[in-house]
Automatic annotation (TrEMBL):
Enzyme Commission numbers on file: 3.2.2.-
GO biological process, one term: base-excision repair
Organism per entry: Aeromicrobium senzhongii
Family membership noted in the UniProt record: Belongs to the DNA glycosylase MPG family.
Name of the protein this chain belongs to: Putative 3-methyladenine DNA glycosylase
Pfam families recorded: Pur_DNA_glyco
Amino acid sequence: MPEVTERARDLVGRLLHGHGVVARITEVEAYGGIEDPASHAFVRTPRSEIMYGPPWRLYVYRIHGHHAANVVTGPTEQAAAVLIRAGEIVEGIEVARQRRGPVADHALARGPGNFTKALGITSLDLGTDLLEPVPVYLGERVDRPTLVAGPRVGVRLNADAPWRFWAEDDPTVSAYRRHPRA
DNA sequence: GTTTAGATCAACT
DNA sequence: GTTGATCTAAACG
């Protein structure tokens, strides 16, 4: 199992600050870069170049008119990154509600698009150093939940790799959906 | 050849 | 009703 999966597991239970909102990460997916056909870094281009750089930087990409946030974790030579799929809002929940509209609290940051919207993350945050305390950055571990692993959501390539990790029985975790053509 | 904007639709709530 | 490491086409360098 690639090293990136270990780093993905380490992110679950940690805090992520985003524009005045803080979320406890509950669900992530590991992307193995050059070893993973589903990764944007599988082909090295200017867009994916950031994943070939130093760890703890933010990679943001657009999808379906929304954004998705990734933490570049390394190992650098593998261009690995971890997609943040869901979290529980633990601070700034009023701001998150305002950004998301009338949805249940456990759904404020459930799903990649919703997560970035609740934390106000856009392509403007691309390349942010997540160790510097503004405006998007990683916080400390506040929880060490029981982790469950399974295949990633909605990926067509490498669809059976069990590189999705989430906190067991957590209501903020999104549901598994297999890609129709996978 | 790459990147971005918009759209689509099966499976979710 | 909502969502999304998909898909296509047009714009870019």
